[in-house]
Design a protein that fits this description.
With about 170 residues, the chain is mostly helical. About 80% of the residues lie in helices and about 0% in strands. The protein contains 7 helices and no strands.
Length: about 170
């Protein structure tokens, strides 16, 4: 195998690993278990939005972390293609259950655009999680619920921390 094929394989494996991490729900379950009962929020909405936040946090961080890497677009392409295929499956399943067509990938893209927009509107924020948490809570239905703000912030911080550690380990830069 020549060097180019080896690098391509690394990117393919990384895309698959990051996608598998995106759809793993153990951290969502943990965060939901620690969301206090007194949180003034619909728990189903928080769980649903946490899953979306995790997916988009990974995609956003790949782009941020590999901003100057020649492999950024290849990894992003692999990752988002896997998310798109997964989203089609989710859309079909949910559509059959509720008798209405939905586009889960479009929803993910809208959420990504929403979070990017709010981050660009607050360039003086000390870190993205300071902006993500409140926007997450607003999306869940109560922008003032501190428990929901913290839950969204924790998901974002933990997710990008895990992605950074993984990308550092495989030395994809």
């Amino acid at each position: 195998m020549d060097r180019l094929e080896e690098k391509r394989s690394e990117v393919e494996k990384a895309g698959e690993d990051l996608f598998n991490f995106a759809i793993d729900q153990e951290d969502v379950k943990t965060l939901m278990a620690h969301l206090p009962e007194e949180a003034d929020i619909k728990r189903n909405t928080v769980e649903y939005e946490l899953r979306i936040l995790k997916i988009i946090s990974i995609g956003w961080y790949i782009s941020y972390y590999l901003a100057n890497s020649a492999r950024k677009n290849q990894l992003l392409g692999r990752y988002w293609q896997a998310v798109h295929e997964f989203s089609q499956s989710i859309s079909t399943t949910i559509g059959l259950m509720i008798g209405n067509n939905i586009d889960y990938f479009k929803l993910i893209k809208e959420r990504l655009d929403m979070y990017i927009t709010i981050m660009t509107q607050k360039p003086d924020a000390p870190e993205p999680a300071v902006v993500i948490g409140p926007e997450f809570a607003r999306t869940c239905g109560n922008k003032d619920d501190v428990f929901t703000i913290m839950t969204g912030s924790r998901m974002f911080i933990a997710t990008i921390g895990s992605v950074k550690e993984y990308l550092d380990t495989i030395k994809l830069r």
